[in-house]
Design brief:
Blueprint (H helix, E strand, L loop, with lengths): L16 E10 L2 E7 L8 E2 L2 E3 L6 H13 L7 E10 L4 E11 L13 E8 L9 H8 L3 E2 L3
Amino acid sequence: MAALARQDVPIDPKRPMVGVAVLVTRGDRVLLLKRHGSHGAGSWACPGGHLEFGETPEQCGIRETFEEVGLAINQLRFKAITNDLFVPEGKHYITIWMEGECKSGEPTIAAPNEMSALGWFTWDALPEPLFLPLANLVAGYAIRSIS
């Protein structure tokens, strides 16, 4: 019996997905968007999305931030990883958190099918409810860099 080629192996629908989220900051504020049209609709999150084949987390974060809010950012740094289990939706994500500062430009709702609002918030005045990965990060349920 011949072995199956890797592309012939069925993907397990219960296997975790990899997401990248970007903490875009300006001074003491972080950019958040209100999710729309996807799991977590109505909650507040950072720009981000699925890591695509061949992308680095930095490339994904830069792409997703531009696609979602029209900001060109660079110099992203690793911040943390959260393990995010969306029980009602049957989804499991490993979220790679990157951070970078936005020195110029104003965010816009560039993906209205994915968000309904956006804004800059201080860490002590975050809107509610928070999207599960962001809630986990804020609560300290994360693996962080040792440096």
